[in-house]
Amino acid sequence: MKLKFGIKEVVAIGIGTALFVALTEIQIPTPIPNTYLQPRMAIMAFLAAVFGPVVGGIIGLLGHALGDAMFYGSVWWSWVFPDAVVGLAIGIFAKKYAIKEGGFGNTKMIIHFNVVQVIANAVAWIVVAPILDILIYAEPVNKVFVQGAWAFVGNIIIIGILGTLLCVGYSAVGAKSSSLKKED
Amino acid sequence: MAPIIEFKDFSFKYRAQTEPTLRNINLAIMPGEKVLIVGPSGSGKSTLAHCINGLVPFSYTGESTGTLQIAQKDPATLGIFGLSKIVGTVLQDTDGQFIGLTVAEDIAFALENNLVPQEEMFKKVDEAAEMVDVKKLLGNAPGELSGGQKQRVSMAGVMVDDVDILLFDEPLANLDPATGKRAIDMIDQIQKKKQKTILIIEHRLEDALYRDVDRIVVIGEGRIVADTTPDELLSTDILNQQGIREPLYITALKHAGCVISPKDSPQHIETMNLQGYTAAVKNWFEKAPEKPKEKETTSVLKVEDLYFSYTEGKPILQHIHFDIKKGEMVSIVGKNGAGKSTLSNLICGFYKPSRGKILLDGEDMAPLSIKERGEKIGLVMQSPNQMISKPMIYDEVALGLVVRGVPEEEIKERVYKTLKTCGLYPFRNWPVSALSFGQKKRVSIASILVMDPQVLILDEPTAGQDYRHYTEIMEFLKEINENYGITIIMITHDMHLMLEYTDRAIVIADGHLIADDTPAKVLTNEEIADKAYLKKTSLYDLAVNCQIGQPSEFVERFIAFERENRMQKEEQEDV
Amino acid sequence: MSKILAYEEKDTWIHQLSGVSKLIFFLLWCFTSMITYDTRILAFMVLFSLIIFKISKTKWKQVGAVFKMIMLFLTLNVIAIFVFSPDQGTHIYGTRTVLFHIAGNYDVTKEQLFYEFNVIIKYFTVIPAVFMFLVTTNPSEFAASMNKVGISYNVGYAISIALRYIPDVQGEFTKIKHAQEARGIEMSGKASLFSRIKNTSSIIFPLIFSSMDRIDVVSNAMELRGYGKHKKRTWYMEKKLRRNDYLTIAFTIVFMIAALIITFADGSRFYNPFV
């Protein structure tokens, strides 16, 4: 686990949160009406995978709270914490992924990353979010679980595709390219 | 007096590299000296700077041999924080260095970290702000400042800590010429008033020499190639050999067959003793061929009476009109924020004009979508990193065709053809990350060229590039312009670029078009140069000081001569 | 880009309060509003929020656009609750007073209406607090405030950097999006979902690259200027706590305790008018 907390981590949280907030409004429409995928989740997943659990968790927490407050004027706390859970969980394996060093390219890593993100999202959206919704807002049980399941599906899709693409792409940049030859 | 910076037989190798970046450096800088460090990209000049401010070895690790002393102390014992009390660094990227939410906070940043009490901070921040003339801006956010103002805030931010050494890392890279001049003047004043030791790292030598420096250190391939006074250095041929551009007037004097002597103080054209050279220069001017007349061609991009504003009553562009002919290379120039980028955004269709028309081949473009325009007018952004979105070169170049649903066979054919045009064919199966910056730039141009546009718009194509990369990129653009008839429009504030490579300059200042003429005429017209934050070319001064009656004609002939020279050189290389 | 909530300088005592007091108020106020479902407390909080909102001289045009969006969410949520669980009110309050029948097992009951009314005013207790916090707190002072209430200055500074670079990132995003659109890459349109995500990646990829570079540049710049040298740091924008600050903090704490006591006096977080 990367638990070192230095200047780079502080800046990564700052810039990462700025990215998360700036992309709050960028949503990809899906075939289902009024349902959008949130690219900002993929960015958080990527940054968590690069910088570790503390950075990932705080970007989720701060980014969601600030983004919601600034764009939507209210903070829905029961949905802020699950974001932090996802960032934290993915971040735990940052050292293993070694994205900056070019370690994230093979199928094994991609599967690992996706297994982790699916489990983390399941915990976040099918357990944490609905429970907080019930505890804090006394919302109907069936409603919050349907909402949670919905968010779960959306987030695993966006992190699964976009998040994986970002990790693989950025890792390719860090990879050593010693075996290259010019071709005629 | 003991030197404040002293390298002795110093070598340094980064951990990830096999070859040392700095070799056998012996350099002593005295307190209060003002030294310019020049060298092409990759020469090791940035590493030298990092050794002085402590980023090497504290952030970028590696092995060193020999000794380095800063203020008679070993940097290793001072640590990066100890060094930060002695050396203040102003980075090239003013946005990266501006950390605070407002000017005042940014200036105070180092004080805050040093636990300075608030009352004292107010006083010190005020003083520093006054020194660099940003006191009225203390409450402003970085978004409300120009590049030059941000840079001055950065200067205040390092001076507030009362450091002895000020290190400027390419201070001119992101500034328009007039603002750059002002920055150099500001640095000069700081040195004189505060007796600081100043190190300036730059490859834009002529602009950096706007004010006196004591010494110039030339770095090439990790070694010190020269360490001498400006007058001495300009009288040698070292700069040319190292791929650093000499001041234009020096080049002109050399063309005229003059041998420059340090006694005539060639550091500034304004004060240089030209007595011994006048005759030769005049003679050259009379013999030099006139600039060849251009052929009239048809219009490709015509802008008619264009207006634009974001909010009513605050016009960004007013009454803009020009007509760009097929196959031209044109520059759009003007100070930062004058509306140059807005103009390219309007042409590409990202914004809608409030009034007026833009015609392509005589047809109004208003009904065309961004995507449709993109097939006719290609936009290349300043940094290739802002465009490249695929890890592999082939995929990156193919992207525009793939999203347009072009059949795979055709994509392959067109991508290969474009890669050949751009000299990237041997690398077609490489990842983008394996390329140099200049090659990446080519990839980003290739990814636009593949769509067969008639017009190419480039935003600052050579920003931050040294002379060799600059020439490489510009020669490539000239080639595609000449061989494929593509019209090229460049948004720039590089005056060399506009002089050497464009036939015409469209000058925009405060939202108005103030000139549409040959670059030589624009850069010899004081009024236009002032309004647009350009700088008169030193060739003008040379011509005037040599009593040549038609300075702009002198400039035209110089440029024509240079182009001819370059072409001959290329032909020789091809043989 | 739609209008986002941002600080505007004005001269009221609320603006002059230290960010610490406003942060404490904001967090405890949100917390109280989360816990309680006591209609009397919620009603008082709405009323009180509106008064404060008025005093802070916040103008409609500062918050109007965002407010309309909240109303949309609120309406959707209220309808969703009814659709999913028309008898949630009965479930909570124990009685079932049918007002009229709609279809199937959908009856409109007094209890459901009262429950949903509580959900609505719960929103309204927090909205003015969020608005006010954002439009009256100088973001520069905010980081200093966080540090003052005992949160590590690293966290405060991370927030400060986030606020500093949000406009830069937005600007860069727009530039990259434009350039990619000209190449024919669109995020919306008729393409399949998968290719839409891939197109989005073509826009986000360059943004990530430049952001990763920026992280390096900014951390170098901070290190060169002595960030992290000491365990503490001072703040240029720090405001000393004054009488009004202490009063505000005291009021907030007393209010929270009183609200919780009143709420739970009968052993339930709900106020039940039906028994």
Topology of this structure?
The complex is a heterotrimer of chains A (about 180), B (about 575) and C (about 280).
Chain A lengths: L6 H16 L5 E2 L6 E2 L1 H13 L1 H20 L4 H15 L2 H4 L9 H31 L3 H34 L10
Antiparallel strand pairs in A: 1-2
Chain B lengths: L4 E10 L7 E8 L4 E5 L6 H9 L1 H4 L3 E9 L4 H10 L2 E4 L3 H4 L5 H11 L4 H14 L15 H13 L5 E5 L7 H18 L2 E5 L3 H4 L6 E6 L2 E6 L1 H5 L3 H5 L5 H8 L22 H10 L11 E11 L5 E11 L3 E5 L6 H9 L6 E6 L2 E2 L5 H5 L2 E4 L12 H10 L5 H14 L15 H13 L5 E5 L7 H18 L2 E5 L3 H7 L2 E6 L2 E6 L1 H4 L3 H6 L6 H8 L5 H24 L1
Parallel strand pairs in B: 3-7, 3-8, 5-6, 6-7, 12-17, 12-18, 15-16, 16-17
Antiparallel strand pairs in B: 1-2, 1-4, 8-9, 10-11, 10-13, 13-14, 18-19
Chain C lengths: L12 H4 L2 H17 L3 H17 L4 H25 L3 H6 L4 E6 L2 E4 H27 L2 H10 L4 H30 L10 H32 L18 H22 L11
Antiparallel strand pairs in C: 1-2
Helix pairs in contact in C: 2-6, 2-7, 2-10, 3-6, 4-6, 7-8, 8-9
Short description:
By secondary structure, chain A is mostly helical. Chain A has helices at residues 7-22, 39-51, 53-72, 77-91, 94-97, 107-137, 141-174, and strands at 28-29, 36-37.
Record the strand order, biggest sheet of chain B: 5-6-7-3-8-9
Helix content of chain B: 40-55%
CATH class category name of the domain at 1-86 and 167-231 in chain B: Alpha Beta
Using only CA atoms, what is the Rg of chain A? 17 Å
Low-confidence spans of chain A: pLDDT under 50, at least 5 residues?
A: none
CATH topology-level fold name of chain A: Arp2/3 complex 21 kDa subunit ARPC3
Shape of chain B: globular
Low-confidence stretches of chain B: none
Strand content of chain A: under 5%
